[in-house]
Amino acid sequence: MPTVDEILELFEKRGDSEYGGECVTQLEHALQAATFAENEQAPPSLIAAALLHDVGHLLHDLPDDAPDDGIDDRHETSGYNYLRELFPAAVTEPVRLHVPAKRYLCAVDPNYRQQLSQPSIVSLELQGGTMTAEEVAEFEANDHCDGAVRLRRWDDAAKDPNATTPPLSHFAQYLQQSVAEADPPPDSFKTL
């Protein structure tokens, strides 16, 4: 199980990699998404999710242009698996669902796909394309659907090479708050 310090260190060590064909790095993208969440006064758990939503990209050694070669790194799943023992579902579920949220928005918002960048359109096709009506209903039934959609919107907007954001250390507070709200692991207990 990672610690908050280890997660921050991961961003410091690997966050300078290119963000999938966009004009920002992984760290710049994460900071921009978290800044949007904070500016919209999202709860701490959703600000943490915005910062961490693409942590799965930092966990592998695939090249930055892997999607151009038809490779989906399934970063939403690897990120979820990496974070789930430390954070509550209010953080990990939006992380897990931010890719399905893109597919969902393509199905329910006729203008959404036109707003996507070219690299995001390429990855959309690798990720399954637009959701079917059955997938839409299943997605909408998830308790974290709204959080995932909000996160997706911030994710899509967080690609400005000239954006100014607070530093990574500023967002550590939201990670710590979210960890404190997590349920204890099932094998732990409290003594009275």
Quick overview of this protein structure:
This protein has a single domain (4-181), classed as Hypothetical protein af1432, CATH 1.10.3210.10. Helix content is 58%, strand content 0%. The protein has ten helices and no strands.
Can you walk me through this structure?
The protein is mainly alpha-helical. The protein contains 10 helices and no strands. The protein has one domain (4-181): Hypothetical protein af1432, CATH 1.10.3210.10. It has helices spanning 4-14, 26-39, 44-52, 75-83, 89-108, 112-115, 118-126, 133-140, 145-157, 168-181. It starts with a helix and ends in an 11-residue tail after the last helix. Mean pLDDT is 87; it is low at 186-192.
- What percentage of amino acids are in beta strands? under 5%
What is the gyration radius calculated from CA atoms?
16 Å
**CATH homologous superfamily heading:** Hypothetical protein af1432
Based on secondary structure, the structural category is: mainly alpha
Span between termini: 26 Å
CATH class: Mainly Alpha
Order of helices and strands: HHHHHHHHHH
Low-confidence stretches: 186-192
The CATH topology label is Hypothetical protein af1432
* Total beta strands: 0
Question: Biggest β-sheet: count, sense, barrel?
Answer: none
Provide the residue-averaged pLDDT.
Answer: 87
- Count up the helices: 10
Helix content: 55-70%
Counted up, domains total: 1
> CATH architecture, please?
Orthogonal Bundle
Shape estimate: globular
